[in-house]
């Protein structure tokens, strides 16, 4: 809709009286006003000229009412250029002898004759700086229209709040950077009229005044005289005014269809098909009736709604209405009815801690490999013997929530206040224990739970200790056996000696849960529910049950549809993609399978989106503090920005409040294994790309929008991506960050990760990329993980203890959130291959069981503090890197600048040296840091600095502080007016 402006004040003094007074004060006498001629105006018509030189308006509107008639609709009639410094508009007055008039710029700035309005007659009339006269100021001059340009620029997809026009009339000179300011004409549009002199066109580029430019990919825009629009890199000449008043939108959206309600205990997941509208649906209203609490209306932005905490054994009815931008409501949908069951046992849902995630260093565990608290839920799976795990008495599902709860004090004793755990949903795969093969996304895997140690119990236990739980989540794919409740394939099976280990006889009534043993087969990994030798109705798999012509290694015949794969037609195209990735930096990386046991979900499909949003709402309701997003790069940014990220924010806000939503930490894995700022030059496959909102509008269809976005951003290239100063100090000053263009997803710092073979490389590469993230202070930083070590090494980090200490010293003081993979504090499994699948025992890999190092007891009164310990855990806590990370956490926790601060290297000599500052909420924390080597800091504030490591005190009076090299792995943290030494000396920090 067009932007509405306030009506100017009504008629007061007459314009004639005011003019007479002005002329009298100036003692000016002039000739009588000329009579209008046929060349200037006809009877009942007025041509009004308005002087704009002293106004500097980019657009001019005449808002008027013929005598005895009605006022025009605000802002009125747009005036056109008449000649230099004059705009004009000719109006038909009918039988009226004059008009009341005011003028405005279309954006709320008015000239209404000091509240009296202008009283104008007929013929040619000039209004110049409050003075009314009868003349044609442009008589004898050539019309100016071909020599001026009115430019409208759309920045709605860029999020700019300031727009400048930097231009060059053809044959003339460029304006001084950044150019001339454009005025906001209406929502999303800025405008400016410029004088071209004798030129008939101009070259132009646009910027936000803060160094971000749109110069048409380096070509600049060519804009002709007259009125033009510039939108999404397209110039439209002789364009209609995009801010002209529009007819109000009165058409309601269509009624939502396909409303379905699924019940689980006292929870209902409601989903429906997207409604349609002539201008676009902006949301939905869900109305629930039933129960004793009366009707409830909830606004949602997606096409799924999870309703939890309902009354037991109660009938509920739901209807859905669609809403458009004008507030029009569709008719209510058909009713969906649901009757709840019994309330599940266990504690009520929890509440996230809701604090700034940058305060919380992260400890990352593979839950099934960390610590075993309940051996009754241990399971080996179909590859238990083949892998060699059986011989080691080491089932792949060994650790559990009980074991993790039992050792939260160990993690707290190290100083960590956030725990990142691998996915918790029920998995289904031949060799899966880490959680990335989701089968039932709505169910917690029972191999992780125990009596008194449910997932909810883990969340609540962590929160009771002041620790957060970050849940690993997967939106990109399901297990190869599909996703229960969405789609599960039926496979062809010949139960000969080749496949008898896999295809079990179907047992009616038995349901796979990964834990329960099926009595006849004796397996917990029973697959009889998936197997059939008869072609099922509705089968889409090609050549069902016919030989492929290939043989297995054992010499058995291979049949079509015997094993799930993307190209057989086994998975419906609407719900799953049907191809293999061919180019990991190509468009197909977001729309094809990664691996044979990772069935790629069609996340642009509303039904898939509903399934995933509804599933993860459950865990938000349980009170998790954030999501680590697996394989985020394999879903288009448009889908994240349109669907999944808003749904997360909406649910957290709805259940836990706006404060919790602001600090609900989402960080994505956007894997890039090259030492590039932008991954092989492909912006769509680079981590920082996912931290930004979209820069333009795309098609309403998500699949089409994904392709449009991919093509547009690839064409824009790396040089035209948005930049940010959010991580950087302004000199020595902290400034409020601008998160207006933040997508809602932070990321793992892949570039630093890839370069942690040497801390200095990691530091300089990270620093080089920081202007391309929305806010790099939220980057998750680690050396190695459950997948890779630095430089895409397939082994756990083996650079040496001194190098580990140096890496940690950098991570704990530089921007970002330090993260440690379980066991790295004792160099656990260093040099061992991280993952070899079922081809070797887990005990020989980087995913080995860690619980043996944690046996015993300990007393932990606070973070980084252990009062006493006995058994194997006492030995573990005595390791040099344990002492190192404990003290690093103490120092970081005591110095706000190291948690939340921006940084700079300006005026600093030294390799890994920087200054950081955070100012906010009554806190002003300023720190000078150098890692391993010496440094000299110049231009810093004068005052007393105390080193948090050594306790050294320095008084700076000339803006310079020189620091000697503390030694590899050691560091110095000089804090202005700081507390002094924090903690006790250890093997590296001293």
Automatic annotation (TrEMBL):
The keyword Ribosomal protein does not apply. Its cofactor is Ca(2+). Keywords: Carbohydrate metabolism, Glycosidase, Hydrolase, Metal-binding, Polysaccharide degradation, Signal. Residues 331-358, 373-392 are annotated as: Disordered. Residues 373-390 have a biased composition (Polar residues). Residues 252-343 form the Fibronectin type-III domain. SMART domains: Aamy (SM00642), CBM_25 (SM01066), FN3 (SM00060). Pfam families: Alpha-amylase, CBM_25, fn3. This is Carbohydrate binding domain-containing protein.
